[in-house]
Hints:
By secondary structure, the protein is of the alpha/beta class. The chain contains 19 helices and 15 strands. The longest helix is centred in the middle third of the chain and has 26 residues, at 227-252.
Amino acid sequence: MDIFSEFRKEIIQVVERLVAESVLPEGLDLARVAVDVPREAAFGDLSTNAAMVLAKPSGMKPRDLAARLTEGLAAVRGVVSAEIAGPGFINIRLDRNIWLRCLGDILEAGTAYGSSKIGGGDAVNVEFVSANPTGPLHIGHARGSVFGDVLASLLEKAGYAVTREYYINDAGAQVDVLARSVHLRYREALGEKIDQIPEGLYPGDYLCAVGALLAERSGDRWQRLPEAEWLPEIRGVAIDAMMGLVREDLAALGIRHDVFTSERQLVEAGKVDTVLEGLAKRGLIYTGVLEPPKGKKPDDWESRPQTLFRATEFGDEVDRPLKKSDDSWTYFASDIAYHQDKYERGFGTQIDVWGADHGGYVKRMSAATKAVTEGAAELDVKICQIVKLLDKGEPVKMSKRAGTFVTLRDLIDEVGPDVVRFIMLTRSNDAPLDFDLTKVTEQSRDNPVFYVQYAHARCHSVNRMAREAFSELTDKPEDGANLDLLTHDAELALIKLMAQWPRVVESAAHAHEPHRIAYYLYDLAAAFHGLWTKGKEQTELRFIVENNVELTKSRLAMVRGVRTVIASGLDIMGVEPVEELRG
RNA sequence: GCGCCCGUAGCUCAGUUGGAUAGAGCAGCGGACUUCUAAUCCGCAGGUCGAGGGUUCGAAUCCUUCCGGGCGCGCCA
């Protein structure tokens, strides 16, 4: 149980009692009533802004209302004191047993601790990666991949029914280019001499294997035919092969999507036509002429009538084109159908994870989703800023020729999937991220992956040492521990921090910001390392207490709590907690 | 030109979605190892939260106008 939401309920009960007594008016909006951790520990354990946010609608002065609230709160079980502070804050001090009970909850729940039901089982679709099926994933894809996967896990932890989805852009011109590139490699595999890959085709050697496969499977069947006859077949084979590479890359990162949706199938099933017909019937599609973009004007700009969607009616700046000059659908058109499709599949909440270069696309997609679901679906587009790859502080030049690695797989092979995953979450998604190959494998406080893992490993280390000191301890020394022996302020402070975990999960899930998990774990690790070292100066604070197995067990229970919460957080991040850092 | 994101300590960034005296890490300075792994910890110093105006009990957070940086701006996805 989350202490903060528990006491928020208590506060609201006190408010409702005052309403019943006609001290407060009916119909107050309680949504803004919040329970927080006070800035200063000296202020108490919890604080609420209830008196301040309810004062005006109640026609009372904040401090007068606070006085009435504190009377009620003082009677709540577990409350030691409730005091008014500053402009009308109420600071609440809780009985130590409340916190010990929290620790008990953690030990009982294990890594399930922090799970929440705020999601209420609602279906959420998280669409991420969705890289074009034209080659293996590169470093640019790493951030969105990890972000999307961890956001999905976070939402699951918060009680949502999450679907991880990948949208395969297999309908545009790029996959035709892919097919031509593969055909060339196919001819090469059949013995033709290919000197240079022509401009505009994909040069990567990863296509050679596909060419060879085709040659083996089909012989020279496609070799001399005109393009129109081999293109669809070879395109299909090539896309399957590329998606195979993509899945392998994702698997190496520990990512697995539940659903892969093909743009081509959506188009071929007539989905795009149906959805856009619907929009046309509502008068949201028309033929018009767009102003050319000001400032940077394309050389080949030519004003002409286009099929446009009335995005401006749904918050966009200009109406957006749906058809290319060759009369085929734009990417935007099929993406409208895709978001409608997701809605029809039951996703009232949709999250798209995109790269920074797609930022300019957000408004039109939100507008379209609003239009096509008539406001019923909620779309949140998360933009991940770029990752700057560094080595010892110097930018890594991304050159295929120079042999500096650029693929996601190379990155994973270099530092391991856990490091990639953790580091990708050490910044907010809208902040650019420096990924320093040297720093991320360093063993120092500057490297958050190490720092958090070290805390977890230390927890195990204490257990190992304790069992050497006390032969009667089992591998679960915390079993039957008397938590009441935990009396020191520093110990309680650590437990209070652990008790914030459910709240961190809820707020991170609500904000769709998985990086908050990483920051919290870093803070928890810092608190634990601090307490550890304190035991050096004040030996009475050591976890392992000579000749006192009972106290040792209590403290090991607390250590177990730290270990559990860290493991619970790393689990969301998809990072394996380590038990030992050096062998 | 327009839109989106960003601007917080020398550097890199958090800031619980409007709360109390704005926080970490790195770099700098000063300390703590006959250890439950010092791969760590403690302390000091460092700020007109880009600038101005507004909203209110209260603003780094919301609105507005500028300044600076990044990304994008029909027939790529």
